[in-house]
Specification:
Layout (H helix, E strand, L loop, with lengths): L5 H12 L11 E2 L3 E3 L2 E3 L7 E2 L24 H6 L8 H36 L6 H32 L2 H12 L8
Helix pairs in contact: 3-4
Length: 184
């Protein structure tokens, strides 16, 4: 079984996480967030610590579901169910190549983005930041974020294009937790 590297898991985490429902937090409580292999694990209500007289946090909007996630298949999902969906050696090789290509791009983008964010931090920590310089740096950071998203989407599209409609249907059912027999 192919093991996905941390880099690609990080690259597609946003899309993969959107496929899992996020448990509601009790008003005025703190619940531990447990992440295993990039997936949030639901904690029991008894794991939440309710703060007395605490008010709900209305300033932080709930996380929005990714509207595209249900149409895409992260590499972890495909590899976790490769036998169940009948993934061929040719498909596996093509997906592995796509993941390797994305990994190399993501690593480069992460290093470049870290450097640019560091520059941005230095610019805005001044008591009187130079607005044009700050905005130029923001533009560089946003361009790198855009490039990261394009790389992520490219990977997801390449994976989906390798899967048959039948395999996609099987993954949809496996992802939702309600596997049903699929007819050819």
């Amino acid at each position: 079984m192919l093991r996905m590297s941390i880099v690609v898991a990080v690259a597609v985490a946003g899309m993969a996480q959107a496929q899992q429902p996020v448990p509601p937090r009790p008003a005025g409580g703190d619940c531990p967030v447990i992440v295993v292999d990039g997936q949030r694990i639901t904690t029991a209500g008894s794991d939440c610590v309710v703060r007395p007289n605490a008010r709900p946090d209305w300033t932080t909007p709930p996380p929005a579901a990714d509207p595209l996630a249900r149409f895409l298949y992260p590499p972890e999902l495909v590899m976790a169910h490769q036998e169940a969906i009948g993934l061929t050696d040719k498909q596996r090789a093509a997906i592995q190549d796509a993941v390797k290509d994305a990994q190399s791009k993501v690593v480069d983008l992460q290093f470049r983005m870290s450097a640019e964010v560091e520059k941005l931090q230095r610019l805005i920590q001044s008591s009187s930041p130079d607005e044009p310089k700050v905005l130029d740096e923001v533009t560089r950071v946003l361009t790198l974020e855009r490039d990261m998203k394009v790389t992520q989407m490219t990977l997801m599209i390449r994976i989906k294009s390798q899967l048959t409609e039948r395999q996609q249907g099987m993954l949809d059912q496996l992802r939702s937790g309600t596997p049903k027999p699929i007819r050819d």
